[in-house]
């Protein structure tokens, strides 16, 4: 039994409680009251992105030697941070499954399934935690993706705040999402002889799924916010 599973369970419960109480903490504006579930869900996702993205960035800033060994070593607390993220993705998976129709959420459910499997292996084996931490850098961009959704639901699409967030969102998308995924794919290719075949297969399949999904999302953002 891995102690990491306790962190996963605690994280699941904590994000579930946060989701339930968010409507009191951040009441939805009139334009979002028709979809209260989505309002709570986005704010919960924003809280996770701030925690995990900020934690991953701090880890690499405080430990610049980390990229030298992404398999066996990791900063103190990194394992717990990855376990917390597994708990969040499980909670969000259940939340979407219970509150949204499958044809509306299948892409995110598929994405979450891949992340849960990959991060779950890191939590259980205490290996590849550094690699998972690289993946969590993507959450820095997710902060602005979630803010974009919040501004849309609040009917603030024609404001300076939305335009500024759109520009930052696009910039962080390129730096922390596309570039990060490209770096991870490159790392897997260079270290294919040092990674067990099963782990290499999981990582390769994960990258093969995530890369096109993120390119499609990038195109949708460009079309929606800049090419209208």
UniProtKB/TrEMBL annotation:
InterPro entries: TLC-dom (IPR006634), TLCD (IPR050846). It is found in: Membrane. The keyword Transmembrane applies. It holds the Pfam family TRAM_LAG1_CLN8. It is a multi-pass membrane protein. One of its GO terms (cellular component) is plasma membrane. Residues 34-228 form the TLC domain. Keywords: Membrane, Transmembrane, Transmembrane helix. One of its GO terms (biological process) is plasma membrane organization. The chain crosses the membrane at residues 131-147, 167-186, 198-222. It comes from the Eukaryota. PANTHER family: CT120 PROTEIN (PTHR13439), TLC DOMAIN-CONTAINING PROTEIN 2 (PTHR13439:SF2). This is TLCD2 protein. The gene is Tlcd2.
């Amino acid at each position: 039994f891995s102690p990491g599973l306790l962190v996963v369970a605690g994280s699941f419960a904590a994000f579930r409680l946060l989701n339930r109480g968010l409507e009191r903490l951040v009441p939805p504006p009139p334009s979002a009251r028709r979809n209260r579930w989505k309002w709570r869900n986005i704010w919960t996702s924003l809280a996770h992105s701030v925690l995990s993205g900020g934690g991953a960035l701090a880890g690499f800033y405080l430990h610049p030697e980390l990229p030298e060994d992404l398999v066996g070593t990791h900063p103190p607390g990194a394992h717990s941070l990855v376990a917390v993220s597994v708990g969040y993705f499980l909670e969000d998976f259940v939340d979407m499954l219970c509150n949204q129709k499958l044809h509306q959420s299948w892409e995110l459910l598929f994405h979450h399934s891949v992340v849960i499997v990959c991060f779950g292996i890191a939590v259980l084996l205490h290996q590849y935690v550094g690699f998972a931490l690289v993946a969590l850098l993507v959450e820095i961009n997710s902060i602005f993706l979630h803010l974009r959704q919040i501004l849309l639901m609040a009917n603030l699409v024609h404001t300076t705040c939305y335009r500024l967030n759109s520009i930052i969102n696009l910039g962080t998308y390129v730096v922390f999402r596309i570039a990060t995924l490209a770096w991870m794919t490159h790392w897997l290719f260079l270290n294919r002889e040092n990674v067990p075949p099963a782990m290499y297969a999981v990582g390769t399949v994960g990258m093969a799924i995530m890369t096109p999904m993120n390119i499609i999302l990038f195109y949708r953002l460009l079309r929606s916010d800049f090419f209208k």
